[in-house]
Design brief:
It is a single chain. It is built from two helices and seven strands. The chain is an alpha+beta fold and 158 residues long. It folds into two domains: 41 residues; 100 residues, Immunoglobulin-like. Helix 1 packs antiparallel against helix 2. It is globular. 22% of the residues are buried.
């Protein structure tokens, strides 16, 4: 679970306990509830931040592309047993070229995956060219991500 969700769940449980117990001191109840709300404001419901991701998608002359590229920005949170990957944003492009997007990310890494989405289903299907690159987030930016579309087997679903 992510930090924001844990904080929100803790606040709900604390508020339920505090309001169901009979207390002669309402001040403690409101202090607890107020502190919880301040924590939510400080952290937010998710601990994501806006990250500027820029780069270029290309295809060799041996790969023919259609007129729709689906570009996914996959948030990589945690490591090892706690590793989570989720699509944070999707961009559609008419052809390979430069891109620059602002993406809400929680992790310190992002995977940029481009698919020549010929059948329009938003997923990599056998025979569709695709490519991906994982990059580090530095100072809320990911710069110069370069990926080349190829004809390798599609990646496993995230």
């Amino acid at each position: 679970m992510r930090l924001g969700m844990l904080l929100a769940e803790g606040l709900v449980v604390a508020a339920e306990v505090a309001t169901t117990e009979v207390s002669m001191n309402d001040h403690k109840v409101w202090t607890l509830v107020g502190a919880g709300y301040l924590g939510l404001i400080a952290v937010g419901c998710g601990s994501g931040r806006d990250v500027e991701v820029s780069g270029k998608i290309s295809a060799p002359s041996s790969v023919t592309t259609g007129n729709k590229l689906a570009v996914d920005f996959i948030d990589v949170v945690g490591e090892g047993d706690t590793l989570e990957k989720s699509v944070a944003h999707r961009l559609e492009m008419d052809a390979p070229g430069d891109f620059k997007e602002t993406v809400a990310l929680e992790g310190t890494r992002v995977i940029v995956r481009a698919i020549d989405d010929r059948d329009g289903d938003g997923k990599c299907t056998a025979g569709e060219a695709w490519g991906e690159k994982e990059a580090e987030v530095v100072d809320d930016k990911v710069e110069a991500v370069t990926l080349t579309l190829g004809s390798a087997a599609c990646p496993a679903a995230e």
